[in-house]
Write a structure and sequence with these properties.
By secondary structure, this protein is α/β, with parallel strands linked by helices. It has 15 helices and 16 strands. The protein starts with a strand and ends with a helix.
Length: 378
Amino acid sequence: MFEFEILKKSKKSRARAGLLKTAHGVIETPAMVPVATQGAIKTLTAEQVKAAGSHILICNTYHLHLRPGEKVIKSAGGLHKFMNWRAPLMTDSGGFQVFSLGFGKDLGVSKIIKGEIKRSIGRNEQPKSLVITDKGVTFRSHLDGKKIFLDPKESIRIQRDLGADIIFAFDECPPPHADRYYVRESVERTHRWAKVCLKYRNSKQALYGIVQGGRFKDLRVESARFIGSLPFDGFGIGGELGGSVSAMKKMLAWVTDELPKDKPRHMLGTGHLQDIPAIIAAGADTFDSVVPTHFGRHGTAFTSSGRLNISNAKFISDKDSLDKKCGCDVCVNYSRSYISHLFRAREITGMQLLTMHNLYFFNKFVENIREKIKKGKF
């Protein structure tokens, strides 16, 4: 079962409010999708993630393939039962790891590069630790050095065994500093792989095609038109996001203007708080983000008055809640003083409390935008 219903289109932007219907539940969109890389949100149980307002997660195909392996998960009844997650799930394809474990690792960069690009990746260049060909990608496991080969057929097979509601086509996520020649060849490779993924899909799972093209408008538009012409159930927007919010919004608009209007769009791998209004205004229905959880584990709380570095000594005597305007269980029951103490004492409970609060805060932030769309105010 998979259906996408648009309830309201904004007259002020490309934003829309809708319902994403799956066999494991209905998601109101726009929605943030927390990243459960290895089948878990670090420090939280499935029940705590739901209590923080999250109703869909995305797991990592590459990492779950390494451990415990899709055979273990399939024998347990699939990823939902394995995780005890009674709500919708996405799995990525492993395409992002082509970048993150390749040129991203080599050069110590993320998908977002601010400022001038000093080192360009050109045609036929290869990263040090993996090999990319038209057939697929050969990785070296970071666990034991074993060779791992992923191609479109294998990626779909693994995702089929994992059993998520929404899966993604295998693609190459090119580095943001790749030149035009590299990106052109990468996009063509992703397009060929997309057709293979459709051939091996499971009709019980929704399959999203992925649009690439880097920072080049014509390649983005070309990719959106090609991927949009194929019978995918929805679409992911991957790769480089631009060095600023305005650049990202413009890049997203190039793509969403070309994709079918009646199908869902997912923005892959972004979601800083300041980015979210632009992501939604550009027409993304869902987006995945590690920001609330990653920052929470490292002592940063997001609040209505800005970020707090809770480890700071000034909070050790602060009896206030993290955010007086927040209604999450953490803000209702715990003080800044206590949470600061936990971080300074290196107690894992502090990470748990900040992760729960941040997830709740981000979900409420998106919910408020969703309600504004419905009321014609966004």
